[in-house]
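note to self — DONT lose this again. spent like an hour looking for the file last time. sequence + predicted structure for the chain T wanted, 155 res
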Amino acid sequence: MTQIAKSSEKLVQTRTDHHVRTRMLRASPPTPTTFEQLSRETIARMPAPFRNQLDSVVIKVEEFASSEQLAAVGLSDKWQLSGLYEGRPLTEQSVWESGSMPAVISLFMQPLLAEMRDTGVPLEELIQHVVVHEAGHHFGFSDEEMHALEESVRD
C-alpha cells in the first residue's frame, strides 16, 4: 500500500509494509494470562535457590490495586502501584508455623501498561522488574540485594 506523507513541505510517497500493518491490526492488549506467563518466565530465570523458595507464592494479576492494598502502602492513586507483595517474608517465618495463607505477588495491569506507553520500556522488562522487586520482599532483601537478584535474571 502506498501512502502520501508530507515531509518538509513537499509530498513524499512512502510504502507501508503490509506485514507490519497486518501485525499491528492483529495486536491486542496483553491479557492477564500474558502477565502471569511473563511473571512465571521471570521466576524460572532466577537462580535455583530463589526459584525454589517461590514455588508456594501465588501470582495474581488484577486491573488495579484495591483501596485496601493502596492504603496498606500509603497510596491513594491507583495508577501509582504496579505490584505488591502480601505475605510474611521468609526472614520472619518460623519452621513451627503452619496453616497460614500463601504469600501473594500481585501485578496491576493498567499501571504497568501505562508505564509501558509512557516510557517505551517493553512490558516484559517492566514485569520482570516488578516481580523481582516483590520477590525480594518475600526474601526480606534490601534494595541492593533486589538489584543484584534482578541482574541475575536478565537474559
